[in-house]
Amino acid sequence: MEKDTKEEELHRKKAILMAVSGIGFGVLGLAFLFAGAIMQDKGIPGMITVPVILSGFLGCNMIGLVLLVKAAPELMLSDMMKNLAILNKVYEESELNKLSEMEKERVVHKLLQNKFRRTQEGYFVKKKFSLYKDFIYYYACLTDDIGIENAIRRESVRFNQTKKKGNAFCLILLIWLDKIGETEKKELKEECKKILLSEYVFGPGAELIVAAIDESTHTGYYLRAPKRRVPFLYGRGCRLIEAVFEENRSL
Predict the structure, then answer these.
(1) Of these four, 4, 38, 110, 179, which has the most CB atoms within 10 Å of its CB?
(2) Per residue in 5-19, pLDDT tens?
(3) Where do the DSSP E strands lie in the chain?
């Protein structure tokens, strides 16, 4: 691990050096133009100066451009990895939020009460207007399972195969487990972190929010990360969950 970190830092320094050198060659290319202007003012024949100036200007700019192009991917990757490490730490330090009284019958009642409509595929759907995404379609899926990861994998495949309207979707996956202990809470947080970090790397798509519900206590858990560090759709979906299932909240 330490060896990989040293190698990454070495690659980053090399990329920075190439980028600085590329900028330097660009500046040198401009210097050729200024030198040419000065030579013309002094009456030096253009037959000699023009070829030298053009060769210097074009050559320096070509070299500078090549160096910048080679350095850019490494710098972008390094910056992304640094941001991912920051985000991972932020999400790791975030606590799971709790939802109380999450009996399945009450959940269905709350969804219908908040104008979700039931579909033939078994989803509860609500369309909401957004200035950022025009309309966002929120799909709530209620399922039972013995494991969080298995439920996510299965329902993600089913959701991707479901015909949908619009182009902005948020799947709120509510998973009922027999019992939720520290192991399940840790697994839930890890799965939520994967979702959030994937959103950062690959960009917005059909967002997924996962909440796990303890069947024995009717207590639900989901990851509500800090607002400034959460993708748009994930944050909106969390606010919808709070508005529907938490007391003293409104849509």
Answers:
(1) 110
(2) 566 666 667 766 776
(3) 96-99, 117-118, 124-130, 134-144, 169-177, 207-214, 219-223
- 221-231: b (≥16 Cβ within 10 Å) or e: bbbbbeeeebb
Examine the domain organization and report whether 227 and 112 are in the same domain. yes
CB 40 within 8 A of CB 46: yes
Torsional sign, CA 87, 92, 94, 100 = positive
Does any domain span residue 28?
yes
239 assigned to some structural domain: yes
Exposure of 21 by Cβ count < 10 A (0-12 exposed, 13-18 middle, 19+ buried)? middle
How large is the angle between the packed helices 182-202 and 232-245, nearest 10 degrees? Answer: 140
38-72 confidence digits (pLDDT tens): 766 666 655 666 676 777 767 777 877 777 677 66
* Bridge-based pairing state of the strands 169-177 and 134-144: parallel
Kindly tell me the burial class for residue 247, based on how many C-beta atoms sit within 10 Å of its own C-beta (0-12, 13-18, 19 or more).
exposed
80 & 171 share domain: no
d(CA 205, CA 158): 16
Count of CB atoms within 10 A of residue 134's CB?
A: 10
Looking at the fold, whether 10 and 106 belong to one and the same domain comes out as no
Count of domains for the chain: 2
Residue 67 counted as domain residue: yes
Query: Does residue 100 share a domain with residue 87?
Result: no
Rounded to whole angstroms, the Cα distance separating 3 from 192 reads 29
pTM: 0.67
Domain encompassing residue 113: 96-245
Residue 75 and residue 165 in one domain: no
Do 230 and 107 reside in the same domain of the chain? Answer: yes
